[in-house]
Automatic annotation (TrEMBL):
Span of domain NodB homology: 56-265
One Gene Ontology MF term: hydrolase activity
Key word Nucleotide-binding present: no
PANTHER family linked to this entry: POLY-BETA-1,6-N-ACETYL-D-GLUCOSAMINE N-DEACETYLASE, PTHR34216
Protein name per UniProt: Polysaccharide deacetylase family protein
KW Hydrolase (keyword) present: yes
Species name: Gilvimarinus algae
Compartment(s) where it occurs, according to its Swiss-Prot or TrEMBL record: Secreted
Lineage: Bacteria, Pseudomonadati, Pseudomonadota, Gammaproteobacteria, Cellvibrionales
EC category: hydrolase
E.C. number: 3.-.-.-
Length: 331
């Protein structure tokens, strides 16, 4: 599992914040239940190389580079001896509320790693007004390459791992990220396995209500859903190249699993409501009951393992434009 935090603070936006007390509880839980906490680059290298990992393995990550990571989270992590990764958007470094490079270096000296979250934290999939495809390509490449250059300059670390700002990506963005040799990390839920999409790895967000201890305990004990194929369809049953749809759409998802019994146990949800599913052998077919509205949405699919009580988990993120194909809050 890869855990995602933003602020570790009581005075920041609740939806992206974990209180210092709750964060300390999370770390204590990992220690008490004998989890192996690995540095994210080490974890990903092990999976890509096919090496076996301890049964309960977690990587801890933070997005954006807020100074509460240093003030509140770092002392707790250092006490437990846990490595962690900070995804930095480099433009606000040294500004009020954000990390300084000196703080970054102090954390690196205690086992932290720094990775890429772009320069300016843009919505990567969105073109600016009157921006051509070529101009968009140049701008987004610069966001990644310039951020990486700054991180290498100040830290000496050069991990080709990108956390997508806002967790947003499409086939075009993934292709660009792949061309630059990066691994892509999202904000959709689920456990990571050898068969995961290396351009869209899931993480468990730990802000707001998602940080509750019962929810935390369930999520850090999850397993990657053993998938053989994923198909995305529009309401008419036509194949989608990625999970980007227009408002009003009711997309469909077909998951081909490794076993019929797992397919029978699988339940998918949209915004907390169960989606009706059709099971055919080891294949599960679900569709949105309600039309999607502009912004971000997702299907979460889980199945409980009867022997261990742990959950297999898969999340499909949908990125929804307006009915006209425009984005909310266009840059």
């Amino acid at each position: 599992m890869i855990l995602q935090y933003h602020h570790v603070d009581e005075a920041t936006p609740a939806s992206t914040s974990t209180t210092p007390a709750r964060f300390a509880e999370h770390m204590a839980y990992l220690q008490e239940h004998e989890f192996t906490v690995m540095a994210l680059p080490e974890l990903l290298d092990a999976l890509k190389d096919g090496r076996s990992l301890p049964e309960k393995t977690v990587a801890i990550t933070f997005d954006d580079g807020y100074d509460s990571i240093y003030r509140e989270a770092f002392p707790v992590l250092k006490k437990h001896g846990y490595p962690f990764t900070v995804f930095l958007n480099t433009a606000p470094m040294e500004a009020k509320g954000f990390l300084s490079w000196a703080q970054v270096q102090e954390m690196i000296d205690s086992g932290a790693s720094m990775a890429n979250h772009t320069v300016n934290h843009p919505h990567l999939v969105r073109k600016r007004e009157d921006e051509s495809e070529e101009q968009w390509q140049v701008r987004i490449r610069s966001e990644l390459k310039d951020a990486q250059r700054e991180i290498v300059k100040h830290t000496g670390q050069d991990y080709p791992i990108l956390a997508y700002p806002y967790g947003e990506f499409d086939a075009r963005v993934k292709g660009l990220v792949e061309s630059l040799g990066f691994i892509g990390v999202g904000q959709h839920s689920g456990a990571v396995g050898r068969n995961s999409d290396w351009l869209a790895l899931p993480r468990f967000p730990m802000g707001g209500n998602y940080a509750a201890m019962d929810s935390f305990a369930t999520k850090v004990n999850t397993l990657p859903l053993p998938l053989e194929q994923v198909k995305r369809l529009d309401r008419e049953g036509k194949a989608l190249s990625d999970a980007v749809v227009r408002a009003g759409e009711r997309p469909q998802l077909i998951l081909q699993l490794a076993s019929k019994s797992l397919a029978q146990a699988l339940q998918c949800y949209q915004q907390g409501k169960a989606l009706p599913g059709k099971v055919e052998g080891a294949s599960v077919h679900v569709r949105a009951e309600q039309a999607l509205t502009p912004g971000r949405s997702r299907f979460n699919c889980t199945a409980r393992d009867e022997k261990t009580g742990r959950y297999y988990w898969y999340s499909e993120p949908w990125l929804v434009s307006s009915k006209e194909g425009q984005w909310v809050h266009e840059e």
